[in-house]
Amino acid sequence: MVTEYKDPFTLDGRLKKPRHVTERKVAAVQELLEAHLRGDRIKSAILQEALTTSDAIFSLAYIANLNFVPNYDEAPRNWSSIADVRTVDDFRPVTLYSINRSWTDGNGASNVLSSHGAAPVIPEGTAYPYAYIAGELSQGAGVTKKGLKTDWTLESRINDGLGAIADLPQQLLEVSLDTEEEEVWGALITQAGANTELDGGTTIEGEVVSANAPLSRKALIQAQYEISQRTINGRKIVVNGGYNLIVPLGRAPFANFILNQTFSTYNTNPSAGTLNRVYQINGNDPLAGIDVIESEWVTGTQWYLIPKKGATRRPVLERLQLRGYETPQLFVDNHQGSAVGGGAIAPFEGDFDADVITLKLRQFGGGILWDNGEAVVKSTGVGAA
Fold first, then answer.
1. In sequence order, what are the residues at sequence separation of 6 or more whose Cβ sits closer than 8 angstroms to the Cβ of residue 55?
2. What is the pLDDT of residue 232?
3. The whole model's pTM is what?
4. Which of 43, 177, 305, 307 is a plausible cystine mate for 223, CB 3.0–4.6 Å?
């Protein structure tokens, strides 16, 4: 879906216009750039001349951002299928506020809310008890600043013409998207500790599921059961809306084959030569609400089961973004000095020290897995704790 902007020049305020840039200048440089990309050598020469003798480079950098931001917004993201977005105001560790049931009402009475989180009954003429909001701090999880600089020399610019202009924004866009993926998937992989591992147990059919069991229907049913028995702030986790099953790249066909099975077969007593039992599923499939997602961050025999976005009251996995800096930014270095006799030097002539032309990418973000991943089950798939 293509985003439409009321003010296409600033993208509705998403872009801050430098003082060197005007709509007329941007339109002129845009026309020269499009002609250059079509192979018009005359317009290409005019563009190169403008970049080295005027402030056209600032308009060119602005055009790069005009293309970068919509492409960034519309680019497909793998992480968005498993994580929500939370906007924060600063770089401090993120805090999730909620009513803390363990706090007293000020008169020594604890657990003001019921075991299921309900407000208490107030008898006629009696005072209302207090229940306080408590901030649950997630240490080590917050927004960080990320970015890089890339440059090429005056000589390479002359030899390459304007080839880098067409390629660099797309390359930096890919870096930005990969950074987002790392923020979310990195939070899931690194913050999910031993408490999230599949413990194993005995299913309703009497089959034994080992700890860190390989992917199977019975292991997935056991994983859902284990999540339902875990507690956060004294409350059991309730999942309404299904789960995402995360597997390594190339394992989705196998995972979907397991999910689409309609019966299971096993030999109850091989040594006695008894026949295999076949259990047909009648009614709802207990695994019907599971969607499969492949990720390069999950490898080997690993698999993760995580509630879908919005399937739990409390957030599970989120990507953090900084208010006012939700979009990555591209900058061009303009520390070129002045020519002898006066006159500004365009950025495409290179910097003062080494005739190097520099672009910078800056973005802010982070990832967080809440509650130590209590709502997540992971398995190494090796069948042992």
1. 20, 25, 344, 346
2. 86
3. 0.77
4. 305
